[in-house]
Amino acid sequence: MIRYNYGQKELADDKVISDTYSTNMDVEADSFNIYTVNFDSNGNPVNGAPINPNNYTIDTSTNPFTVTFKNNVQAGKAINIAYKTKVNKIVSGSSTNQVVVTNQAKTNNLPPTPPITTTPVQQVVIKNKPTVDVGTKTAHYTIDLNKNKYQMDNALFTDTMSYTEQGYANVPSKVKLPKADEDAGVVIRDVSDNDRILIGAIQLVESNGDILGTIGDPVAADYILSVNLTPDHAGYKNFTVKFQNAYAQTNHQFKMEYYIGYNQFSQNKPNPNTSIDYKNTMEANFTNNGNPYSSSSSTDFKTSTQEVNQGMKSGSYDPKTKEITWTIIANYNNLGASVFGFKDPITGNQVYEPDSLTVTRGSINANGNFQATTDTNYSGNQVGKDYLKVTNPQPTGENAQGTLEMGIGSDSNYIPGWDTVGTPMVFRIQFKTSLRGKLVYDQSTYTNTATTTVEGIEQRLSASVSIAFGGKSAVKTGNYNTQTGFINWQLDINPNQSLLSNVKIQDTPSSNQILQESFKLYTGKYAGSGNSTTVQPDQLVPSDQYKVNVTTDPATGQQSFTVDMSAIKEKPDPNNAGQYLTGVIEKPYVLVYDTEPNFTAKTETVTNSASISSEGRELPGKDTQKNIAVTIQDSSGTAFGTKGKITVQKVDGNGSIVSGAVLELLRKNIKTNKTDVLYKTKTDSQDWRLSEI
């Protein structure tokens, strides 16, 4: 594309654009499109209306070709000139046959464009990334051949894949799960002939060149696929596809596809227990007018972590039930093992729930996920089956909860169907652990590592679960409400759901805010999940189950308050029907209240600090603080000043303090006409005292 006059200059005399191109390209005369160019709000060029062909001429009979504008149509306009060229040499991508094309445009009055030099990408053989089915351990390859439709004589395609010599990968097959000799080979479609499927023959070739076996008719076939075996027949070096007969000389485009079975481990081909990178290259060799050409294309895929580890483990935490659900997938590669072992230590203070254990048989689907079997011979929970021996954990301490062990099959009682093809041999093991009645302070993340032993090989499968608000006994949040002019504070109490008794809260806001009579205590409920889990107010707690006490320093005005939750009735008393273990909590609670800004400037930072305590326990994360920058919204009558101190005394005619005089500080809301008594004091003969009402 030629971008002309993007500066939108008049250029009335600049009518001719010439474009010089390398001789290994031909210009396609009917491919030209010429447009005016507009620019969007970001300055990006956008094609506008096409220019009327009567206003320009194109001459492609020479190199350079020229575009000549007429009627001064180019003046003051940005213009795009789009066209196509075709490389007239064979682009094979070979280092010995590099094709480089160049192009440069210029006009009489503008500087020429910088020369453009590029190397076209070969289209002789394009090996696409395979589609991998983890469940069946197959990789589906598709290869585009001769997309340029070159004349190809005696074409030979050689496919080399890593680890085929070790026998980790099978010979190619036409179908995903081959069942007969006729399923071996590849499928080649003639794209230029309505996707006609070519007829092929297969030969197994010894390392010395002898033919070990043949499938199909190699004389009549359109191509011969040769599998070149290793000397020990453990695998193969590569396979080749040679066009012959009607396709010995062709300029057609083709598409090849086939399946490869990978990770074909056995006793003689043991699992290396590491990720395998299956690299694959197809090379095409052919002649054109007697000249040899070579092209190649490569791709690869790697085995997943689950395949390497022969399993996987995961966990999830439900804050509503305080349970962790652990899930282990064992024998992920669906090996025909007669027995295997399983161990999983229960870490920290989580408690194993024996009735939660389920063991399900199944397989791995194409996406790598477990899929439970529907075969009635193997479906359902396997716990209780005679081939499955379960040993429950035996706790020996608060943080020593024992180990869950399972023997899946034994020397005297093998896993049912282990030696039958198609039997679901992947096992999903699930169980729950509980944190009910526990103080969640030792760790905010619980890590469990299971060990599976399949065919004598041990694999360690680890997973971690983050506990919502683990290690946090209190969390403070707040925001400024521009509608009410108040700061709305929220204190999450016991968000990690520890078992606590007689909880007390000490909360101190900064001195530039005034507490309002707005305290409300709610039970909490969880919203969101994972790291985005929050505690939201749920049910209002009756006011007789907690006490709030606000104190104010008469000299500084500093306020603070305490919350006493020793009268909470949450947990029923197991020994007295209808009674409660007063003051004992295991749920989260939410305290909400408001403060009013008391600023000397339009914008100040307010701070709120809180601390939680529980009878008989040192709590983790017991202190919490929140800072908020608050800007007071301007309104009629808004004013700011400085904080100071005033002393009010009632004296008699002699200047002596009048004993027993009562003084009140009142605040009146002129909108609601409501009067609040902020402070009340009573004097005596020596001094006066100030107390909050």
SSE arrangement:
Elements: E1 2-4, E2 16-21, E3 25-39, E4 45-50, E5 56-59, E6 65-69, E7 79-87, E8 101-107, E9 116-118, E10 125-127, E11 131-133, E12 138-145, E13 152-161, E14 187-190, E15 196-197, E16 200-205, E17 211-215, E18 223-229, E19 236-243, E20 249-250, E21 254-261, E22 277-288, E23 291-302, H1 305-309, E24 311-318, E25 323-330, E26 340-345, E27 351-364, E28 370-372, E29 388-391, E30 403-408, E31 426-434, E32 445-454, E33 457-466, E34 474-480, E35 487-493, E36 500-501, E37 504-509, E38 513-515, E39 520-527, E40 534-540, E41 547-552, E42 559-564, E43 584-585, E44 589-597, E45 603-613, E46 623-631, E47 662-669, E48 674-683, E49 688-692
Parallel strand pairs: 16-18
Antiparallel strand pairs: 1-7, 2-6, 2-8, 3-4, 3-7, 5-6, 8-9, 10-12, 11-12, 12-21, 13-19, 13-20, 13-22, 14-15, 14-21, 16-17, 18-19, 22-23, 24-25, 25-31, 26-30, 26-32, 27-28, 27-31, 29-30, 32-33, 34-35, 35-44, 36-43, 37-42, 37-45, 38-44, 39-40, 39-44, 41-42, 45-46, 47-48, 48-49
Structure commentary:
- With about 700 residues, the chain is an all-beta fold.
- It folds into five domains: about 120 residues, Immunoglobulin-like; about 180 residues, Immunoglobulin-like (Sandwich), CATH 2.60.40.740; about 160 residues, Sandwich (Immunoglobulin-like), CATH 2.60.40.740; about 160 residues, Immunoglobulin-like, CATH 2.60.40.740; about 50 residues, no CATH class.
- Helix content is about 0%, strand content about 50%.
- The chain is built from one helix and 49 strands.
- Strands 13, 16, 17, 18, 19, 20, 22 and 23 form an eight-stranded mixed beta sheet that branches.
- The longest helix is centred in the middle third of the chain and has 5 residues.
- It starts with a strand and ends with a strand.
- The C terminus is likely disordered.
